Amino acid sequence: MKTRQSGVKQVRFICLAAMIAAMYVALTYLSMALGLDKNAIQIRFSEMLIALAFVTPAAIPGLYVGCLLANILTGCAPLDILLGPIATLIGAGGAYLIGRINNKKIARWLFTIPNIIANIIIVTVVCYFCYTAPAAQNASIIPFYAATIALGEIISCGLFGSVLLFGSEKALRRLN
């Protein structure tokens, strides 16, 4: 039999995950409104929310669902709808695991790496197969995609995510 307290924790977890998903979608739309998703180097403000996975496990499903919804609502290709959230899930899970490292000083500098690497690999494949004209599909374009995706993720996730974490870690820790 579940205690009332465990039920409250489950509801809180689900609500927090839902709020994170909503923030992800809203920040994706903000990036679109500013035209930052249309350039070779795409800046998705929503990627900075990976910092939340460093401090709360609720961010893992929240970021996954947020990415899934954002990709559906913004008209991404079916393969992008399928694989984009998987990259985010890998990144969020990695950030959460790094957040469990005892040496927080080191962990704070490493938490964005899984998300950046997952996006470089997965989104490069998605861009090549979904957003490259068949006549232009040539393996020589893959390093270009990887480089521009890396740069966009380093800015969105690495820079903005680190600023979010460093600037509000104490407040974020209260989420748990």
* Share in β-strands: under 5%
Number of strand elements: 0
Helix content percent band: over 70%
> From the helix content, strand content and strand pairing, which structural class follows?
mainly alpha
Terminal residue distance? 23 Å
Radius of gyration: 17 Å
The mean pLDDT is: 92
Question: What's the helix-strand series?
Answer: HHHHHHH
List the defining traits of the structure above.
0% strand; 7 helices; mainly alpha; 176 residues
Task: Please provide a written account of the structure.
This protein is 74% helix and 0% strand. 39% of the residues are buried. The protein is globular, with a radius of gyration of 17 Å. The mean pLDDT is 92. The protein starts with a helix and ends with a helix. It is mainly α and 176 residues long. It has seven helices and no strands. α4 (78-99) packs antiparallel against α6 (113-130).
Question: How would you sum up this structure in a few lines?
Answer:
The protein is mainly alpha-helical and 176 residues long. The chain contains seven helices and no strands.
Chart the SSEs and their pairings.
Blueprint: H1 4-33, H2 50-55, H3 59-73, H4 78-99, H5 104-110, H6 113-130, H7 142-173
Helix pairs in contact: 1-3, 3-4, 4-6, 6-7
